[in-house]
Design a protein that fits this description.
alpha+beta; Protein Transport Mog1p, Chain A; 9 strands; 20% helix; disordered N terminus; disordered C terminus
């Protein structure tokens, strides 16, 4: 994956999530906006029935279906969590008060221990990026020094699904 794509993808996901939260009231038949005071949750469904949930702004929880073999950095605050209900992937944005290098070292150690292989690594200025692969899943990690002792961690998980042949879509599996 090229450097520009690794930087662009997490930024694109963040922009889309903010735009979708703003669009929640424009398409009530396709999205439901729930404001719980300190958190906003949006459920969306596209024309093909693919469902996505976006949760953000304020105190946010990691979705229970988030993969257990991907570390959520200890003591980091969850700022945003986007989970595709279809299971195709998710995006998580965290903020920690630890140095970028310590965070990167922790991810490298934990991901390796969980069977992930580091497939790419780069650092440009304040942004360090890593990519990990395991089976049909890829985690793109961007760790940014925000200044003032703050570090932002963005994780984007993508799951490659094997496409179903059109002839098999409606067929049930015999018992």
């Amino acid at each position: 994956m090229s450097h520009s794509k690794r930087v662009f993808l997490p930024v694109l996901v963040l922009i889309i999530s903010v735009a979708l939260v703003g669009c929640g009231d424009k398409a009530p038949e396709k999205a439901a906006l729930k404001d719980t005071g300190i958190r906003v949750k949006v459920h969306m469904e596209d024309e093909q029935g693919k469902k996505t949930t976006i949760e953000g702004y304020g105190k946010v929880a990691i979705p229970p279906e988030f993969p257990k073999d991907i570390m959520i950095y200890p003591n980091a605050e969850v700022r945003e969590a986007i989970m595709a209900e279809s299971g195709d992937g998710c995006f998580v944005r965290l903020e920690a008060r630890e140095p970028r290098d310590r965070i990167l070292d922790a991810y490298k150690e934990k991901m390796k221990a969980e069977g992930w292989k580091e497939t790419a690594a780069s650092t440009t200025g304040a942004i360090s990026q890593r990519e990990y692969a395991k089976s049909n899943r890829t985690v793109s990690l961007a760790v940014t020094d925000m200044g003032g002792g703050r570090t932002e961690i963005q994780m984007n998980l993508t799951v490659k699904r094997t496409p179903v042949a059109p002839a098999e879509e409606g067929r049930s599996i015999p018992k």
